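One thing: mind reviewing this one?
=====
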Amino acid sequence: MPDHHYREAAESLLESVSNTRYRTVSQTHSVNLTTEDLLAGYRPYGRMSSVRRFFCLFVTFDLLFTSLMWLICVMMKGESLVLIFNREIVQYSIKTSLFDVVLVAILRFLVLILFYAALYINNWSVIALSTGGTCAFLIAKVFVFDWPNASQPVYQVFLILTSFTLAWGEAWFLDFRVLPLEMGASSHRPTVSERTPLLQPVRPAVPHSTYGESTVNWFSPVETPEASPRPRLPGEQVILTQELIDEYKQQAEESLQTSWRILNLPTWRLEKRGSHRGDVVESVNVDQLGKVYRFTGVVDCPAKFLYEEFKNNMAKLPEWNPTILKTEFIKEIGPGVDLSYQVTAGGGRGIIAPRDFVILRRTAALSRDGRVTDTEPYCYMTSGISVQVPGYPPQKDMVRGHNKVGSWVMKPKSTQTPGGKIEECTIFHWLMCCDLKGKIPQFVLDAAFATVMLDYIVHVRKFAAESKAKGLF
């Protein structure tokens, strides 16, 4: 992709974030780097952020590695552990023993874990003192140590240099990574006090036409639809009025055409590239919907096989797709139109908890101009939107998500193998525009959505490979 496309994507992200320290990030940086950094500094439910957790792991590695290096140094003489213990610890001398380097690492570990893990301070002063004290001691150690009589000078020099380097690495990582990322993530949180009303006033819906608006708004609380006063009893059939059935059919057709229109928009921007060749996640802003994601990749199986699997074996999706925990078929509304209930697995490194959805689905084979056809289809599509269905209200222990627009599009494609054999594969598109509700900043979800789509296609390819091995196509 040309360089100016990368610049445009980076500039869009920078403009969407509030006036934080991330304004200083170079615009030549990748969009994905910035969104992943924001996610790393986020503290889900007040717990420790992932970047600070890595810092604590780094401090622990410092202690263990220094201790291991010291053991290697003293064991090189071939003495017993008793002699080593007496010489290095009991009869300690700063001129001949290196155990003091281990003691400094232990002290540094205890101080940093206490202040930055247990007390969770957000100040660099403690690590500045620990790093400065470590460096001062190591420099003094170099001058007073009896180097001419050292048994293993190479390993002993390496031990001191390692301790010096690790101490400075901890200081750099805390000051240039942990504190800035957590500060940037916390600046997006709304100010909440004892005077903040529990129920926010209802505001009229405003179309979101800019990237900035779609990435800084907070999701609204979950509401119980009035159309579903009670949950469905086990075995109870869902009874729909003819008026509601007609409404569902109209909504299904509209979602199909909306998905087709969005899929063919010319203004898609790059979000992330996958490790598999050709995998790409793009995004576009659509009025009244906000930010829509599109995944594009190739799956080695016929498009019709994949389409029929999604269409007819929906209840079996959780068997091969771990991102879906439960799928329940509710009712068929008409040819190619049905209702289903789904529970998705959590994601975003534990930030996003499982969600449930009630989906109105439309499945059809389409011609090149997007019309439903039964002969020589250009592609196959399954589209879905969230609707309210009697008997399926939001659960108390589950957040009900809202699927604004979503679809899987499968285009047949023929490829030639190195041996000259013609095989059919699928150009797979996935459109997603989803409001997961709950009190999660949209910028956190933006960082997770692209990763979720790239992870999902891995399971689709695995299923296709297993189906091919079984001779299903």
User: Anything to note?
Assistant: The longest strand covers residues 402-416.
